[in-house]
Amino acid sequence: MGASLISAGKSAPAFGKFERSIAVRYLGARKSQGGVGLITGISFVCIMLAIAAMIIVMSIMNGFREELVSRMLGAQGHVYVQSYGDTPEPGEIKSIADWLNENDDVDLAMPILPKQAFVSANGQGTGALVRGVSPDNLRKLTFVTDNISLGNLDEFGVGDYGGDVIAMGMQMASTLGVRVGDQVTLISPTPTVTAFGSSLTRKAYTVGALFSLGFIEADSLHIYMPIDQALIFFDAGDTPTEIEVRLHDPEKVREFSRYVRQNGPSTVRVYDWMDRQSDLAGALRTEQVAMRMILAIVVIIAIFPVVSAMIMLVKNKGKDIAILRTIGATRGSILRIFFMSGFIIAALGTIAGLIIGILFCLNISVIQGVIEIFTGPLFPPGVYSLTDGIPALIKWGEVTWVGIWGFLISSVATYFPAWGASRLDPVEALRFE
Asked: Is the pTM of this model over 0.90?
């Protein structure tokens, strides 16, 4: 038997059956051998939970971020293309919008007229952000049309010069005490000069629809007005000077803005929502980077039980190492045996964690429902506007990164105890046996 072991030890290929069989057998060390088996189980659970937590937390953060950005940008564009001049050439803005709509990344590019105004009704008044849009483009804004709480857009844009029907947010309507069908008075902040002096332009409009976008700024400030009527009311000329662009993916605004600057007409300037909301965009990015660093450190901490188990295994298997070296096993073979022992624990824990984390995110609504049976609503819809429950967005690139990170840390953590085992002197190990 000794000869066969010598032969196996000398001729066995790297990571071959001989080394794998010993590595797996060492993982099942009995309690009498120092409890390495128990620590192995604890190590597996620690890594599994750390990887699962990393997937779950990152996915929920992505979901909340996506929800926040979609609500915030629901009443805003992703990219804005604005004419340098106050009076662009006739048809210029429309031709640019048509060119932008041909891009595969664009969901909708529409000319708009954004203005500020004062709106009053029933003795109440508040500031408003009036957005002049064409009726066809407003009906394409599914974020608005899908969130109309009262009324409809059937009469929006109907009548001479766009008619006098507008749409406003529910919060603004509540402040003014108006309902669908009531009239409100809009007052332009820019005085109009006449032969009898200057005066503020004011006009009564009918509320045709009330929307609730779930974002306080939009619901309390925004009014949609037919663009033909807005041009007249605000004395803005014959054509708008700005185009609002909505992309399929709001995260691509930087690349798209660069593309328009390089390939679009030189008579426009381009800026995006990250420029307008630079503080929020920076905060979201900082939070994203910081949380991923914290979770990566958690995974590193979870590896320490594996290191402890490997150190104990090497200590308890000193005699076995000496015997293997004596019968011909090389230092490289010893290193690979113990490296595989630790790596198997960490790799299985990483794979199990990935599976649990993904399944948790895919079934988060069910899990939330079970938890709420005992705790009550976790995120009341009336407060957080999360009608579909906790959002979780799995990004498979991040899942891949987590898996690679788990395997990488596992390899580094198990290498050094295995290297120590390979450096063990057989004479010293057998001296007191």
From this structure: no
